[in-house]
Amino acid sequence: MTELKKVAYVFPGQGAQHTGMGQDVFNDFPSARALFEQADESLGFSLSQICFNGPDDELIKTINVQPAIVTTSIALLSAAEEQVGSRYFPKPCYVAGHSLGEYTALAVAGVLPIAETVCLARERGRLMYQAGQINPGSMAAIIGLDENTLAEICDQSETYIANYNCPGQMVISGKTENIEKAGEMAKTGGAMRVIPLQVSGAFHTPLMSPASQGLSDYISVINFKDADIPIIANTTAQAITSSDSIKQELINQLCQSVQWQSSIEFMINDGVDTFIEIGPGKVLCGMIKRINKEVRTINICDIESIKKLDFASV
Asked: pTM for the whole thing?
């Protein structure tokens, strides 16, 4: 039996969603069902039905998809703990979330109650959509280009690197016409692929400043607790626990880059040998393996993956 030295939970962000997510655990696990019902009650409408039945164009709306992913991720964690037994489910020494996933990490780390976290995620989605209307923009994933080349392209096209995901995969963000220009420059410069993303604005850039101010006002009246588990901040790739530092991170995160590769490297350098991705999709496990092939990754994305969990044999 291989001993788990250090475990981290990681949570996906916007883009991981799919219609039907969470319905299987809702049906089979009382703990997951209770979480979806709590989210529905706190929001005042049936978010769960949007998760389960869509339609797709309703689910992908920023104001819906953000609380939907947070709720589904926490429900999957609860279902996994129910399946394995909370005594036996590995406890994390760190939690981290990719962009929106940082909000899931807040709830899991005990910073905010789940109902309040879901409402905060919806408000974040509303503010980001609104900022996208004020400052229209878009995003694109760039595959197979080195960081220095992409940084030069962004300087020339007045765009930004929004996500440093893993070697050979970054995301650019900016005004729509500039993103199109940068995408063509990236292809010319040797990028293997340029993939436009389905988002409502130029996330993680200064174009989100209206959302940043709105979020600052919103969270100023919320009672944040210090984190029970250190959270790896997207913008600094450093561990934070104090309520004040967490609030500032959420505000900064809207306009600054997500340092995902550095976040994973920080945890690995501190001895983390197992990453458990909890939420819809399997994107983060793939990124982590591209950052370091030696670490163990476990994915919890649906009832099938939960039924296969056997930590006694890990």
From this structure: 0.96
